[in-house]
Amino acid sequence: MAGKPNTPETTISPPHLAPDIIISLRGVTRSFPTRSGQTVTVLDGVTFDIHRGECLVIMGGSGCGKSTLLNCLIGELQPNSGQITYKTRDAAAALEITHLDEQQMNHIRRRFGILFQSGALLNSLTVEENVALPLREHTELDDSIIDIVCALKLEQVRMLSHRDKTPSQLSGGQKKRAALARALALDPEILYYDEPSAGLDPVTSATIDELIIDLTKKLNVTSVVVTHEMDSAFRIADRMVMLDKGRVLRIGARSDFERIRATPMGDLPSREDKIIHQFLNGAPAGPLTDVEGMSEFEQIIVSGRD
User: Fold this and answer.
1) 82 occurs within a structural domain
2) Which residues form the domain of 266?
3) CA distance 125 to 150
4) How far apart are alpha carbons 56 and 34 in whole angstroms?
5) Residue 260 scores a pLDDT above 90
6) What would the 3-class secondary structure string for 241-265 be?
7) Above 90 in pLDDT, residue 33?
8) What are the backbone dihedrals phi and psi of residue 284, each rounded to the nearest 5 degrees, phi first?
9) Global pTM?
10) Short-list 60, 112, 134, CA closest to 222
11) Is residue 274 a part of any domain in this protein?
């Protein structure tokens, strides 16, 4: 795990979570130093809940904090302040993760799977060997049982016929599906997806989206998807969170965002709604690209300068 920022030694009591909440974030803040010695706050008091069995899409423009938030959720980064609380099925009580050591965090990590943007398959292993890896690392199952589990997971993502291939022999979409089979190997309660449609053509992207929907419903997992692909987001989401400058700009049902997306910007009542509209429609003009009043860091993000 990455090094922790300085935090008090006192233990924070996790909040009581409602039965339908599997993850709760309260006031999560994360800052980073810049080369010039300044500090940039990437997450600024992020607060929301993730409901058990839903597909939640986290979206926002470049530099809004999506990737940092995902890394905090999976324990690779520690917030400077705030709470992230999990309530998994096998836990007797809600567990606040920001003060856990590596061994304790690894126990939580076994309850979720991650589909990385690149797939992160090991090129020296076959597809089946990649899927078997978490089973061999984290269980004491016999090889014969591991073979059966691998076959089942590959069948779930329609990759069983490719089990003996290496990643170099797969297309981009096939790599994503093989990596998803590996993420499913330990029967997770939560699946994290980091830009699952990145680098895929529209047809393959739609196929991955259908797979996400299918797995969420059939396996009763909670899916958390970080993406900036709006067609994909509106296909798969039950609810959506939009981040802007490290803060939660809006969280709500997909229908709430569909309404804003379809309403002409001039008819929207607030600047917040106009920001959401501009992002969802990919409009070049609007409050997101109005550089007046932006900090230098924000202008760099918008302009694409290094």
Assistant:
1) yes
2) 21-52+63-106+235-303
3) 14
4) 31
5) yes
6) EEEECCEEEEEEEHHHHHHHHHCCH
7) no
8) -75, -25
9) 0.84
10) 112
11) yes
